[in-house]
Specification:
Length: about 180
């Protein structure tokens, strides 16, 4: 049995849960999320918490037990508090701006890089170089942050590029002049 899967998921006040077979719908102050469980997992609500039960005994079901418990917990946290990732843009002339549902970035290329912001995600720009990505779906927030970072991964010589806030880039020494 999974140690993580056995743990109950505490429901904060104000979260509405509806369970229909293997479909779980969570609704909170930030929004609404839907999660579908595999056939071998059952969920029920008890004493202000959600409890998952594994009805199968296969190796795969044991692995999926902990995974789906974590995914449900992330959904509960998402509709209650939401998730955010912060990115920083380093480089001379590098900047970003939000125009409607598009993020426009000047990253030293001959053209601006335009990224279509997905539904359910909000991007805020401070000081033209600091991005904050917010949403209720943890997986989608992380994927959007990784997509944006992928446009110009920080390089080790000058440190130019898009990086996560607090990320440390290992710097390399450049070429030394030969005599």
């Amino acid at each position: 049995m999974s140690r993580i899967g056995k743990l109950p998921i505490k429901l904060p006040p104000g979260i509405k849960v509806s369970i229909e077979g293997n479909n779980v719908t969570l609704e909170g102050k930030k929004g609404k999320l839907f999660h579908r469980l595999p056939e071998f997992l059952k969920v029920h609500q008890q004493d202000g918490s959600l409890i998952l039960e594994n009805t199968a005994d296969s190796r795969q079901s044991k692995a999926m037990y902990g995974l789906h418990r974590s995914l449900l917990n992330n959904a509960v946290m998402g509709v209650h508090e939401g998730f955010q990732k912060k990115l920083e843009i380093n480089g001379i002339g590098f900047r970003a701006a939000v125009e409607g549902k598009k993020l426009v970035m000047n990253l030293g290329f001959s053209h601006p890089v335009v990224y279509e912001i997905p539904e359910g995600i909000s991007v805020k720009v401070q000081d033209n170089t600091k991005l904050t990505i917010e949403g209720i779906d943890k997986c989608l927030v992380g994927a959007v942050a990784a997509d944006i970072r992928g446009f110009y991964v920080p390089e080790p010589y000058k440190g130019k590029g898009i990086r996560y806030a607090g990320e440390v880039i290992r710097r390399k020494a450049g070429k030394t002049a030969q005599k």
